[in-house]
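Summarise what follows for lecture notes:
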Amino acid sequence: AHLVGQENECSWTGVTCDAAGDVIKIDLQNSRLTGEIPSEIQYFAPTLEHVDFSENNIVGLIPDGLYSLRKLINLYLHNTTLTGTLSPKVSNWAELNNLYLGNNELIGEVPKEITMLRKLRFLILHANKFNGNIPSSFNEMKSLFYLDLSYNDLTGGLPESLSGCTKLRHAYLDHNKLSGPIPSSYGRLGGDWIIDLTMDSNQLTGGLPSKWGDKKKLLTLKVQNNNLRWEIPKDICKQWVLDGNGELVELGADCNICHCDFCQGRCYS
């Protein structure tokens, strides 16, 4: 399949144009595409808002032409075979709401410029080969709702700045090489409205913050397979759904730190 070389773009499969005949959307999800993303996509930069090449056999690097799409709102490139790094030029995507790059073979550090995307709500980078530290300026991302950095090779500590994302509801940081303590500010993550938080299978030390807050919406908390030594706070025990005080349905913790009544038979030895 080809994205360029035809005369009338609005007649292409998966292409949507506006009333003026300008391309605003390319949706070719699961369309058996092969090869690389053509750099010629930059020709649609003045108007293109939506790109979906996910679930195809696309290979190669993210082309410079893609970074020139300053009007992009949605970019879906997950479940392909992209390689190379994620460029600091991501800062060009200032209008972006959704960035899905999961299940690829991207390497290198997550560029700090990604935290300049103030309108970003969904940031999905799981199951790649990203390494280095997590960017430290997440507090600038006031719209961030869903963050998935799991299954990479990230190192260093958990960013304190993540607690500044008051709209954050889902955070997946598991299966990396993160180390050090869990910041005390994580006790107020998402402004007390966090729903899912997974930090399991890292190298974290210490324990969960003692003042965990009143997280009525917390469904999933996973911290097993770390080097934690402090007992799970009683505030978390009180969130168990069957006790009628919260909505917690899954607590993943090692048995040596989980002394909640419901931990028996559910903890990790």
